[in-house]
């Protein structure tokens, strides 16, 4: 794999998808956002998103990773990662809606495989078609990295369940029709179940949650007060909720990395443009300063290293390897490297890097979040150490 801020791919299908995606992001979607006056800090509406869902599906991007039976192209994880990187590098406000991250097929995850026929036709296939949207509600105020400490409970009642609890940081919550909610069984402390909960149900309220430091308004809290959920909306069996919620954690952890790497690409490209055009005392361009050259070189090298290890791990996953350790490593290294690169970019941009409303300042805040989201860097280090110890114990039989 060679270094480039505009990666190319030998696989003809992937190359065609990447070029088509770039054209859509930089052309039609950019024009759509400009026409509607959309910004990263504005409040998006369902009316803003739905046309993008439909158009992206027409173009073959929405749910492209799904099996052909569901209208996708059955992409490998490494190919999907390449597309997610392009989204991250595009600077599009609605980029998250093109592949289905914002309430679409990527948000639903593996639930398609767990669903009954009724659940597929009533809930999930409409999501795949861009007609409905969903959110995933797992995190609670005191249950982040340790999700098993959640206090939301589901009590069995005639015909279904009564769910009570308060979920936070439900991405796509402001636009969703239903949520995939994981709750602790009321009569079994260690058992968790997953449910499809209509967000207009009695006892269910979608409210504004805390605004993340990125300033984006794409999260919500889901408040459940004795909310009745029919038995037909139980996903899988009782007690399987945590397996459903965390079953693809390794894959999901890896697939977050290309999105961040795309943002890093964007940062490096913006920084390169800045140092070529910004003048210092005497009218010389900033790039003539050796200190600036070294910063740009370190940024590009960090990106190349992080991207290389992520691509290698995704390709190993596609080949059927167990990449739990590599997934921890990639999440840790990408998060920490991306933050250092973003921090250097702010330093290079100076005042403009500190000014709210500039793209570099936004990207710095956005990337800073990745050191916490989807598992903190400390949690990743714990996972790496645990896997190393486990491997040693297996070899020695201790």
Automatic annotation (TrEMBL):
Pfam families given in the database record: Acyl-CoA_dh_1 (PF00441), Acyl-CoA_dh_M (PF02770), Acyl-CoA_dh_N (PF02771)
Naturally occurring in which organism (per UniProt): Saccharopolyspora cebuensis
Sequence similarity: Belongs to the acyl-CoA dehydrogenase family.
Record has Nucleus as a keyword: no
Keywords tagged on the record: FAD, Flavoprotein, Oxidoreductase
Domain Acyl-CoA dehydrogenase/oxidase N-terminal: start-end pairs: 13-131
EC number from the UniProt entry: 1.-.-.-
Enzyme class: oxidoreductase
Domain Acyl-CoA oxidase/dehydrogenase middle: 135-212
PANTHER family, per database record: MEDIUM-CHAIN SPECIFIC ACYL-COA DEHYDROGENASE, MITOCHONDRIAL (PTHR48083:SF2), MEDIUM-CHAIN SPECIFIC ACYL-COA DEHYDROGENASE, MITOCHONDRIAL-RELATED (PTHR48083)
Ranges for domain Acyl-CoA dehydrogenase/oxidase C-terminal: 239-388
Cofactor: FAD
Name assigned to this protein: Acyl-CoA dehydrogenase family protein
InterPro entries: Acyl-CoA_dehydrogenase (IPR050741), Acyl-CoA_Oxase/DH_mid-dom (IPR006091), Acyl-CoA_Oxase/DH_mid-dom_sf (IPR046373), AcylCo_DH-like_C (IPR036250), AcylCo_DH/oxidase_C (IPR009075), AcylCoA_DH/ox_N (IPR013786), AcylCoA_DH/ox_N_sf (IPR037069), AcylCoA_DH/oxidase_NM_dom_sf (IPR009100)
Molecular function GO terms recorded: oxidoreductase activity
